Amino acid sequence: AQKITQTQPGMFVQEKEAVTLDCTYDTSDQSYGLFWYKQPSSGEMIFLIYQGSYDEQNATEGRYSLNFQKARKSANLVISASQLGDSAMYFCAMREIKNTGNQFYFGTGTSLTVIP
Amino acid sequence: GAVVSQHPSRVICKSGTSVKIECRSLDFQATTMFWYRQFPKQSLMLMATSNEGSKATYEQGVEKDKFLINHASLTLSTLTVTSAHPEDSSFYICSARVGFYSTDTQYFGPGTRLTVL
């Protein structure tokens, strides 16, 4: 089974509108972390937001917020007031903490295009 | 689904030695492979981009003689950290992309933890 599932290969949003990028995860661990990264065409990975499994409140960072629904194992990214510069690939990732060290799992990404 | 593996998952080495990390796409051919290094606060720094059969393109500030990247086949890329030092200790992640475009599907490896004593 996929550890991280991003079901939206491509999304379009009007400038200044909000958009939600979906992410579901699969783990039997109690302690884990969830991440969202933005990847422009240059290939770099820009860290956006982090949610710990024990965090009771949804993480927020500026225009980014993470809609964490633990029971549903979903960690959707919400971008408010979209900007043209938000056009990029977005990756959801999970970190499991093992005795042998951290294990990372990434989704296959969602391509977001912001329309002027 | 497509899987990208990295080997080893953890490696501890002495200062001055060289370490090779392999990144393999197990059930698809990767046109492009990326190598990232994780820094504190979760950021992932792109080290280099490699296309099969050609030299890797290194990002500014990454020493190409220290971090040797080889993409000899469509399913294998290697990162060799030469003369490793404690400051090279980090988590290294590779990813493999099926095509040349930024919107093509990209798969990530689980990462390799390098500790240099």
Summarize the structure.
The complex is a heterodimer of chains A (116) and B (117). Chain A has strands at residues 4-5, 10-14, 19-21, 24-25, 32-39, 46-52, 60-61, 64-69, 74-79, 88-98, 101-106, 110-115.
- Work out the helix count of chain A: 0
Task: Give me the secondary-structure category of chain B.
Answer: mainly beta
Overall geometry of chain B comes to: globular
Query: CA-to-CA gap between the ends of chain B?
Result: 37 Å
Spans of chain A of at least 5 consecutive residues whose pLDDT stays below 50 are none
For this structure, the quaternary state is: heterodimer
Total E-strand runs of chain B: 11
What is the residue-averaged pLDDT of chain B? 89
Classification by helices and strands of chain A: mainly beta
Chain pair sharing the greatest interface: A-B, 28 and 25 residues
Give me the Rg of chain B, rounded: 13 Å
Mean pLDDT of chain A: 92
As a percent range, the share of helical residues of chain B equals: under 10%
For the record, give the distance between the C-alpha atoms at the N and C termini of chain A, rounded to a whole number.
38 Å
Helix-strand topology string of chain A: EEEEEEEEEEEE
What is the H/E order of chain B?
A: EEEEEEEEEEE
**How would a textbook summarize the main sheet of chain B?**
7 strands, mixed
Radius of gyration of chain A: 14 Å
Number of strands of chain A: 12
What does this structure look like?
The complex is a heterodimer of chains A (116) and B (117). With 116 residues, chain A is an all-beta fold. Helix content of chain A is 0%, strand content 55%. Chain A is built from no helices and 12 strands. In chain A, strands 2, 5, 6, 10, 11 and 12 form a 6-stranded mixed sheet that branches. Chain A has a 4-stranded antiparallel sheet with strand order 3-9-8-7, with no helix packed on it. Chain A has a two-stranded antiparallel ribbon with strand order 1-4. In chain A, a hairpin with a 2-residue loop joins strand 7 and strand 8. Chain A starts with a strand and ends with a strand. Chain B has strands at residues 4-7, 10-13, 19-25, 32-38, 44-51, 57-58, 67-73, 76-81, 90-97, 106-108, 112-116. In chain B, a hairpin with a 2-residue loop joins strand 7 (67-73) and strand 8. With 117 residues, chain B is mostly beta strands.
